[in-house]
Design brief:
Blueprint: H1 3-8, H2 16-25, H3 30-39, H4 54-63, H5 69-81, H6 92-98, H7 108-118, H8 129-141, H9 152-164, H10 168-180, H11 188-201, H12 206-212, E1 224-227, E2 242-247, E3 253-258, E4 264-267, H13 277-280, H14 283-309, E5 317-318, H15 319-327, H16 332-336, E6 341-344, E7 352-354, H17 356-360, E8 370-373
Antiparallel strand pairs: 1-2, 2-3, 3-4, 5-8, 6-7, 6-8
């Protein structure tokens, strides 16, 4: 079998990504053909714990030294992020028909995973590669408003590569992914690891890492998570029941269990479902909802402790950072609103109390404003600088 034929066997006429890259991959010089064939074995060396085989990684790095190798990987990843990604967007009827079917993986899937992994070992300026990897990950972990078939292995490969790439732009992509990808998703573990790796490489202090990686748990900005069947709840978690998890301004977490007749029963910790509800739905789905509510409760308690500890640190935040990581975070905002804050603008008047229900919600402050926790007993105008 010739080298070009070997590459052809890695492609799939029924896969849109394969067809987009086919012309580029089947007419390569021997060293690049060897790279493609090697990357096509990725799924054999990339396990469910998101760890890649060391000899496979070493060989990949060696093959990436060939002329044009890095550009080829960039191209493949850019095409993976484009249009429908690898698996493509799916209509609701298609998703329902495919549930429970154990279809054989496309032969191109292993090559796609290999390209995503290899992207992390590119050492030239990554340029738009980080954004392409982030979009690829979003589509395969269902952190999108359009439904895509979930592929944890492919998303995990993209997360791992982002943790390897240099540059502050990469970390910005990772912060954003960490916010939008629910911690309940299996590859979130490799995303969290990549965030820590990139932050350590760039010297980001631990307290900034902590405030930028508070799990959102899939909650919307209003503090609710609606769960249900396809197209009736969060796209990333389709369940054979209807329920709503809510984080209230009081700090209480509740679960509203919605029965088939529309009857709603609200429960608090330990979030037991109504009598007979499990029998009418799926017991494992009920248990999953209860676990999710408990995760949210735990994060809320951790945030309460973290923010209370900030009171003695005399830290200030930029207005944009404070809004993003404190005021608008669906979990952190509950604790944020229970504390007193003050702000400073460039008018020489020092710090003054911040009304979270007036100043912040109306976005009345300029981006140059600074925000800090208000010290107990402080006056309205402390006269201190940032």
């Amino acid at each position: 079998m010739s080298e070009s034929t070997s590459v052809t066997h890695l492609l799939d006429a029924d896969n849109a990504w394969s067809e987009r890259v086919r012309d580029r991959l089947v007419s390569l010089p021997p060293d690049l053909t060897e790279l493609v064939c090697h990357l096509g074995t990725a799924s054999e060396f990339w396990n469910w714990r998101y760890k890649v085989d060391t000899p496979w990684k070493r060989r990949t790095k060696a093959l990436l030294k060939a002329d044009g190798a890095e550009d080829l990987v960039r191209y493949a990843v850019r095409e993976l992020a484009a249009e429908g990604s690898f698996h493509g967007a799916a209509e609701q009827s298609t998703v329902i028909r495919e549930l429970g079917q154990n279809k054989a993986h496309s032969p191109a899937r292993s090559l796609a995973i290999g390209c995503a992994l290899a992207a992390g070992w590119i050492r030239q300026d990554p340029g738009p590669l980080a954004a392409d990897l982030a979009l690829l990950a979003r589509k395969n972990v269902q952190a999108m408003e359009v439904y895509y078939k979930v592929d944890d292995d492919l998303a995990g490969a993209a997360f791992a590569s982002l943790g390897e790439l240099p540059g502050p732009a990469v970390l910005d992509e990772l912060w954003d992914l960490h916010y939008w990808v629910p911690s309940a998703r299996h590859p979130h573990k490799v995303l969290a690891k990549s965030v820590k790796k990139a932050a350590a490489r760039l010297g980001v202090p631990p307290h900034e890492v902590a405030e930028r990686t508070v799990p959102r748990h899939g909650l919307e900005k209003d503090g609710t998570l609606t769960l249900g069947w396809i197209d009736q709840g969060a796209l990333w978690w389709n369940l054979a029941l209807d329920a709503v998890i809510s984080v209230h301004t009081s700090g209480q977490v509740t679960v509203d269990w919605i029965d088939k007749d529309g009857t709603t029963t609200r429960t608090t910790h330990p979030f037991r479902s109504p009598t007979g509800y499990k029998a009418r739905t799926w017991s494992e789905d009920v248990d999953g909802v209860r676990r999710q509510a408990k995760r949210i409760e735990a994060t809320l308690a951790e945030e309460r402790s973290r923010l209370l500890a900030l009171a003695g640190e005399e830290r200030t935040w930029s207005w944009d950072d404070w809004r993003r990581f404190y005021r608008d975070h669906p979990v952190t905002r509950v604790v944020t609103r229970s504390l007193s804050w003050e702000y400073q603008v460039a008018d020489g008047a020092g710090f003054r109390p911040l009304d979270l229900y007036v100043d912040s919600d109306a976005a009345a402050l300029p981006s140059t404003a600074r925000v800090r926790l208000r010290a107990e007993g402080s006056g309205q105008d402390s006269g201190e600088g940032a």
